[in-house]
Specification:
Blueprint: H1 5-14, H2 21-41, H3 75-78, E1 82-83, E2 86-87
Helix pairs in contact: 1-2
């Protein structure tokens, strides 16, 4: 698949890139090569290949949720100011 100079200019405008004439010519050729390679990949038979989200088989490693005893006594014991189930903290917004 051939890519035109106008395509490269359009993409550079979308990406807000300012390209020199040499860069436009270089990227026109490089992007054309990339699209040619992708079109070759489309020729492969992938009928029996299951869709994947990742090339490696990965699983989440989550521990089981369980309630543990607190590692410290009571949170109220270490709070500077605690009254009727609430913590008193310094004002941070004026």
């Amino acid at each position: 698949m051939a890519i035109s100079r106008e395509d490269v200019l359009h993409v550079s405008k979308l990406a807000r890139l300012e390209l020199s004439e040499a860069e436009i010519e270089k990227f026109t050729g490089q992007l054309g090569d990339i699209l040619d390679y992708i079109s070759k990949l489309n020729e492969l038979d992938t009928k029996d290949v299951p869709p994947t989200a990742h090339v490696l088989e990965i699983t989440n490693v989550f521990r089981e949720d369980k309630v543990d005893a607190p590692r410290i006594g009571s949170i109220e014991e270490i709070a500077p100011e605690f009254h009727k189930g609430h913590f008193r903290v310094p004002k941070v917004i004026e």
